[in-house]
Structure formats: C-alpha cells, structure tokens
TrEMBL record:
Region listing for Disordered, in residue ranges: 45-101
Record's signal peptide: none
SMART domains: PKD
Protein name: PKD domain-containing protein
PROSITE patterns reported in the protein's UniProt record: PKD
Domain PKD, chain residue ranges per copy: 645-736
Gene3D superfamilies: Immunoglobulins
Record organism: Paraburkholderia ginsengisoli
Domain of life from the UniProt record: Bacteria
Residue ranges crossing the lipid bilayer per the database entry: none
Amino acid sequence: MRRGRFIVRCNDFRQERGADARDECSNRTRGCAGSGLALRIRHRLESGNDTSRRRVGGFGGGRRCQSRLTRTSEGGGASPRADRGHGPATTSRRFASMGRAKTKARRHDMNILSRAHKANIFYCSTVIRALLLVLSCAASADGIAQPSVTLNFDGLADGVFVTSQYAAQGVTVSGATAFAAASAGVPAHSGQNVVYAGTGLMSFQLGSSLGQVKKVSAYITGPTNVGLFAYDSANTLLGSSVMASNGTNVVLSFTSTGNAIARVDIHDGGASFFVDDVTFTGSSQYALKNLGLGLSAGTVQPQGTNAQGQVAGVSANLNGDPRAFFYNGTSIQDIGTLGGKYAAAAAINSAGRVVGNAGIANGAMHAFSWTAGSGMVDLGSLGGGIAYANAVNASGTVVGVASLTLLKYHGFAWTQGGGMTDLGSFGGPLSYASDINSAGQIVGYATVPAGWPHAFVRTGSSMTDLGLLPGAQFSYATRINDHGQVIGGATVANGRVSAFFWTAANGMVNIGTLGGKLTIANDINQAGQVVGSSTDSNGNARAFFWAGGALTNLGTLGGKTSSANAISGSGQIVGTADTANGERHAFVWTQGTGMVDLNNRMQSAPAGLVLTGALAISDRGEMVATSNAGLMLIGGNSSAPVVGPIVASVRATVGAAVDFKAAFTDVDASDSHSATWSWGDGSLAQAATVTESAGTGNATRTHVFSKAGVYPVSLKVTDTTGQVAQVSTEIVVTKK
C-alpha cells in the first residue's frame, strides 16, 4: 500500500459534492502534495530531482503528470507479499485525474506542485490529512540471480516429501522423498541425505531467482536408462543425459546452448532411483518481458505479484484510460471494469484472485474481486457510493475502505459468503483497512473521538489500538505478515515521520533513522525484515534494510538518493536509486552483492531501454520495473520478443515526415519477426520495415500527421511462434 493512502478520491468528491467540485477535485488529485507540510515532506523524500520528464513516452496528462506517476512508482514503497496487498486506489486516483484532464493537459504542461488546494477541499486542510496524502504520493535470500545453486537435501527429516523447501532458492520439487543415506542403504555423494523417486519420476521447476539457467547436473544412483531431461518455458525438450549402465552416484549433466532451462525431469519410465546434489547453474542476467495494455504509463504495487509468476496492476490503454490488467505468466489481459472507464488492480493472491477498484456507470469507484473463472465482481458498499479494495489473503478475504456518508469512511472486510462487513472505528468518523494476513488479522488505522487516527490490528471481532510512539500525534499501520508482525508509521514533533515495527510481545518499536528526520517503512517479509526509505543527515532519502533492531543504509548507485520498495521472502530487495549522473535506475540488493543496477543485468536488452525503478518482487524472484518503454517483467522464462522505447527522428509537425524506430531483441535467435505500426490518428495501421540478425533487430516506418494533436503511436512485434510484444508512446504534433 502507498503509505496512508487516505480516502480522498476524485470520483468520491465529484459524486457526493456535485459537478461544481470538478475543478477542485482535479486540483486536489493532481496536487495532493500541495500543502505546506506535504510539500516539505515530499521534497525531503524525493530530493526534488526529476530527470524523467518527457513528452514522448508520456501519458495523457503531459510530461509533468507522467513524471509524477513515474517518480511515485519508482521511489514509492508499499507493502509486500503476494497473498496480501493494499489498494492501488492512489494510482487509480492519479490515473483517473489524468484521464479526465487529458485534453486540457495536452495543450500545456501541468504544474502539479504549484497548484494550491482550494479551501473547501475536505481532508486536505489539516496537517494530518496533508501528511496522509503525501505519504500516499511520495512514500512510495541472498544472491542476485545466483550463478548456481545446489540442492544437497541435508537437514530434511527422514520420509519428508520434498516440495517447496527450496522455493527461496528458486526451485520447487515434486516426486522426491528425503531419506538419510544410511537408512536407505545407498551412499550419498555429499552430506548425509539423498532423495528417492519411488514412482520413477522426479521433477524440478525453476524460478527466476536463478537467472537464466543454462546447465543442470545431478548425481544418480539407479539402473540403466535413468535420464535427466531439460525443458524450456514452452515445455520444449532442450536436451538430455542418460545413464548407460547401472551405477552409483553417476553424474548426469546437460548444458543448453539455446533457451533457458525452466524445468528438469529425472525418470526412467517407472524404475525407482536415488538422487543427490542437484546443481542448477544460471547466467547473471534476467530475461525481460514488456507488460502493459497500450501506453507506457503504468504501475504495479509490491503485492501485485505472486509465486506462480502472475502479475496484476494498472496500465493505460491506447485511449489513455487506466485499466486493471492480469498477466497469467504467458499473456496479459485487460480485466475490464464495472461499467465505467477506469480500473486499477491492488493485489493478487496465490490463487490468482485480483482485487482493486473499478468505475461503475456513473463514474464512482467500487471495490472489486476478479478471477479468471468468475470475472469481475462488485463487492458492494457500506451505504455510501464509494469503496476501494486494498488487500486479499490466501483464502480470498478482501479488506479495504468504503464510504458511509460524505464525511464518514470505514474499513471493511469482505468474504464471498458474508459480503461486506463494517470494521468500525475507535469512536471517530474514519477507519481504513490496509492489509490482511493468512490468519485473517487486519491492520490499518481508525480515528479516536479527538479526531486523530491510531494504528490498529483486528483479530476476529476485536480491534486493538496499537498506540503511539513517544511524542507522536497519530499512527497508522500498513502491513502485517503471517506472524502478526506489523509495520507502519507515526508523526511526532517538528514534522518528523517515524516508522515502527510492532509485535504483540514487544509493542511498538521505533525503527529509527539514518541521521535525518524521516523514515518510511515500505515492506516486510515473513522473516520480519523491513525495507523502506529514510533521510540521512543531509536530508537525502536512502534505501534501508532493518532486521533485529539494526538499521542498514543500502546506499545508492552513485547518486544522492534511493528507496527500497519491496523485499522477497529470501531477502532480495528492489527499488530505485540515483546514479552518478542523476538518472533514476532500478536496483536489486542482497547481503552478498550489495546494490546492483538492474540495467547491468538485463539479458538481450534492446537498444535504448532503461529500467528506471523496481516496484515489486515475488517470492519466486520475478520483478516488475518501470522503464522508458513502459512496465517490464524482469526474470521468469519468457521467450517473447522484447521491444525498447519508440524514438522519433524529429519533433512532429503537421505535414512533415517523421521517422519512427524501435529496437527489439529475442532470446531465440532463430526467430524471425514481423511488426505493425499504429498511429492513433485514424489512419490505417502499417507494416514496419524490419531489419534483424541473430535475435536483434529494428522496426522502422515514416509517417505524416495531417492534424495537430496528441496521438498514441504503438508498435507490435510478433515472432514466428506467435508471441507478441508491444510498446507505445504519445506523440505531440504541432502546427508548423
């Protein structure tokens, strides 16, 4: 969840205050950091360096609006894991404002931070609410792509089925039972344990934390014809190695010279055998995949990925409308709305259930739950016209916030059998549910009679006030893991923002700072490790890692600022950091490697592609990042082509020829490609001129625009297997 994403919504305000609130609403939505304290906090956290402003590659609202979305996505944090989540309502609000203001914004840059809030915009007039809003706007396992990992099966109890014990290393196993070698009567290659395939088939599914696996080896004790068989992500057999005779600890090995290995089977059509020391060797680079529904703008919350390789988020379609999307591991789809134009996905659980908010016919936003089988379901209301879903756990319980009246919002919990339940408050008019764990514990904040919000954890029907840090005026909880450990924040004197870590045993503990005044906790994993952003003594925001009471500065990529947005179960941290030349780049960090620029870890990256911020990481190791070509999936085993940013040769004017170009790559160098340009100006799509060699190519075309305007130009590249990649941008065409 974006910190304290308060329930100020453009659609809410318009629906419940009337059409005369339109200008005020747009003003507030575009400039939620506009009040004094909010501006100061945003400035301190973001350092004020905005190198991402551009028209080409923008979205709807022009360069500053695009910059705002990008910087928030890159630098903002939230909370984590796949089976829970918090709402993307912040993103939806921004997207909705940008979409409605699109035509006007195209005629001039939107000076977002300079637009003052109007006096009668409720909830934005006080320090607490300005702070909550800015926290939504600005707050935003070791080994990176390990070269190799060996499963020696030691430490597993006798007779245990091997399944997900090595998921943190990127491997899930089936058909294997662990035994002590002595009790099994066979020698181990190393250590004390071996695994047994009683059915004659043992399978290893590989995740992206291994990088691109190109070699596998295993020590086999068994009969003739037991073989090791390697497959790619399309289940195509890459090659094999087979025992020529009965043997003990015979090493079988296979190296792929083509696609990466995604699955390994060991079998002999039914004969049983023993295995030890299975080693997977990967490259130090990650595969890439274009995500998105059209235009380059989009975002994914840290809880928008799961361990099945699925992703849910929000992306602008070619009409400029923000829409919720679902990526099933192979293809991406627009999951629709509830009758309106807009939708945003907040979270996805392990079963592929997506939750978020979507527009209904009258423009109001309602919470939804979506599955591939049942489609999008409206979760109802608490009597008012607005609802937002923020999180979902493994069992499908959804939490969020809904309106009761114009000035009264309460957190809710929703189940398929029981519908929407009001969570109440601490006597004040407001409450907000931000997260839920697998046990059904809910966290968020609720106002007390004096008006200040306090963080809470709700277990069953009992809501517990988590209290305040010393000197704090209010607190809010954003994230809870399956052990009941909670993170959140609190403001104290002099505008300071402190992050906390709470347990039932020890209460609220101040995470501290890196020498400055502000700390925002963005994510927590099941081990209780916390990441986020904290200012140093110079006021520069720095990514941090906190565990066991110790706060670690993760550094930068040579520049001044950084922010850690998410952490996986194995301790891999992703975020964004400044480089020495002031650019924003995506990073991954581990205790073994430190901070690594993901731009140096891209496999077969097309020319010109720059990863600007890492938003999320699954427990399987796939990452989602922003880039100058839109959202990118980093990791996984995609063999689709990858397309870089669209480049225009000159500034577009009416009647002048403009040369367009985009580079692409394909990990399968044997593929050939076709491509199609669409201009967005009502003219027919045109085939691109494609030049390519050994998996690298360019798609070009010249076009003449006949009228001034802003046009969504898109390129679709298709390989010989039918796999598609698409990238888009908006081109501003002016009169001569």
